[in-house]
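Blinded run. Sample ID left blank on purpose so nobody reads anything into the name before looking at the predicted structure. Input follows.
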Amino acid sequence: MPEADLHFYFDPVCQFAWMTSKWIRKVIAARDYRVEWRLISLRMINSHVAYSAHFPPTYEESHNAGLRMLRVAARVREQLGSEALAPLQRSFGAHIFDIPPWRDDAERTATLGHPEHMERVLKHAGLPVEFAGALFDESWDTEIRAETDAARALTGKDVGTPILHIDPPDGVAFFGPVISRLPGDEEAVQLWDNVLGLARFGGFAELKRSMRERPQLRVYGLDESQVGKQEDWHQGSRRLKH
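Blinded prediction complete.
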């Protein structure tokens, strides 16, 4: 099988990774790219962090749920091949973000990354629901950790998700782009070309602002005609400690 044009590293619970992936799917369709979906864990990235001191109360359990779901993804990939991650990644987003708002944080915590939710995700992706049995199987963590480390070795460690690796194995890699609005088809390709123009210049390192709009996702009560409220994401997250 030919090498992919793009490696896309995602954590299922990252709303920005999901929004970026929705945009990238438009680029894939226009450019006929082959994309390989890969795994990166926010829980492992933040393994050294005291969540109670640095993050809002829901973050630790959300990141734990992401790790559980990545275990399922690792098992799916091992048994069915990397191509099976494309529908699974799409189904993750459909059942985490493209849904009506959660009633409260307790409902979200009690749902994400638990067997009944995971079985719905798998069924929607056309995959056997038996794979949900990997949710609490920590034997997959070694593989996920190695892939997380590999992604961060491409970019440096002060990054989150998603990470994109263009023209692997020797092409450029970067964190993001972090976007909050889904561009139209023509705008999506134009945005992609602009991103590549920056990323492929050897001396380019960073273009950033911490003010972000809440993503245009149903779970936040927004659709593609609405612009989300701006929030200041200190060091890439809504940290409590500054």
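Unblinding after everyone has recorded impressions. The chain has nine helices and six strands.
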